[in-house]
Write a structure and sequence with these properties.
The complex is a heterodimer.
Chain A: H1 4-16, H2 19-38, H3 43-54, H4 57-66, H5 69-94, H6 104-125, H7 131-134, H8 136-158, H9 164-188
Helix pairs in contact in A: 1-2, 2-3, 5-6, 5-8, 5-9, 6-8, 8-9
Chain B: H1 2-10, H2 12-19, E1 25-26, H3 27-37, H4 46-58, E2 62-69, E3 72-79, H5 81-105
Antiparallel strand pairs in B: 1-3, 2-3
Classes of the chains: A mainly alpha, B alpha+beta.
């Protein structure tokens, strides 16, 4: 394999994708190139034909990014966020949560960390040509998991009485905790 | 042509599963099988097949294994039992859909 065009393409794959994905795609590109080379075309023509058949680098990176497991996980967490948020808001208002013995600094920290995690998930969920950006999910989802767990623990420890709405909100959070715990090891493996 | 590509994308999972039905294949071989099987009408950019195969693997419908070919790492895919079940369901659904469409578009004279 000596075509500078193919060498550059493969380098681009390795720069922008995890090693396993880059290796797999590079094998396909080189096989396509070799196929054209074997049919008698010169190196340059074979390289152009291979890239035309394989798809340009932006298209291929975009497709890997669009189908990245971390991007899908971020989208699911973001989609369930409003449900969890609305459940918790309703439950906390109905339970007069402002009277609970939770320090203001703790409440503010909770909100700030939640905001940062949501922004990171939004960046991962909307990534179109950066596979690396989808990996923000792996950093943000444990934070979301801890925040959901904190909210459930706060209800258990600080709520004077367990209302039906608090139960629903805690149930939504437990569902998100289960999803995150199930997804995280799979994201780490990719 | 663009519309056909969109329709094709909608059926990509089923086509990929069908291309693995007769045994393990790697990405390039899957692409060639689709091209040959469709009389060269289904000619997707090869590079977009790899992410789709990864997605099928993540969904538990295909299983990938690494091997060495020509000094390069190659990933080959085969159907899992869940993949075979899904393909069987997709085939049945397609037969029903095609029969209904044919009945409307080509009514018996």
């Amino acid at each position: 394999m000596t075509s500078p065009m193919i060498v550059g393409y493969v380098a681009g794959l390795h720069r922008r994708l995890p090693a396993a994905l880059a290796d797999e795609a590079a094998d396909g590109l080189i096989e396509t190139y070799e196929h054209h080379l074997a049919s008698g075309t010169g190196q340059q023509a074979a390289a152009h034909a291979a890239v035309a058949e394989f798809g340009d680098l932006e298209t291929v990176i975009g497709e890997f990014t669009r189908q990245a497991p971390a991007r899908r996980a971020a989208r699911i967490l973001l989609a369930t966020g409003p449900v969890a948020g609305a459940s918790w808001a309703t439950a906390l208002i109905l339970s007069h949560a402002w009277t609970w013995p939770v320090p203001a600094a703790t409440r503010l920290s909770f909100g700030a960390v939640l905001l940062l995690a949501v922004l990171a998930l939004a960046a991962a969920a909307t990534s179109r040509h950066s596979y690396q950006r989808t990996r923000l999910t792996a950093a943000a989802s444990p934070v979301i998991l801890v925040l959901d767990a904190t909210a459930v623990a706060a209800v258990a420890l600080a709520a004077p009485a367990l209302t039906a709405m608090l139960g629903i909100a805690a149930g939504v959070s437990l569902g998100r905790i289960a999803f995150t715990a199930w997804t995280l090891p799979r994201l780490a493996a990719r | 042509m663009k519309a056909e590509a969109q329709v094709l994308k909608g059926h990509l999972d089923t086509l990929l599963l069908a291309s693995l039905a007769n045994g393990p294949r790697h990405g390039y071989a899957v692409k060639e099988a689709l091209r040959a099987g469709s009389g060269a009408r289904f000619d997707l950019p090869t590079g977009t097949i790899y992410p789709a195969l990864r997605r099928l693997e993540a969904a538990g419908l295909a299983r990938g294994t690494w091997s060495e070919a020509g000094g390069r790492r190659r990933r080959t895919y085969e159907l899992t039992p869940a993949g075979r079940q899904r393909l069987s369901r997709d085939r049945a659904a397609w037969r029903d859909f095609a029969a209904a469409m044919s009945a409307i578009l080509e009514p018996a004279r």
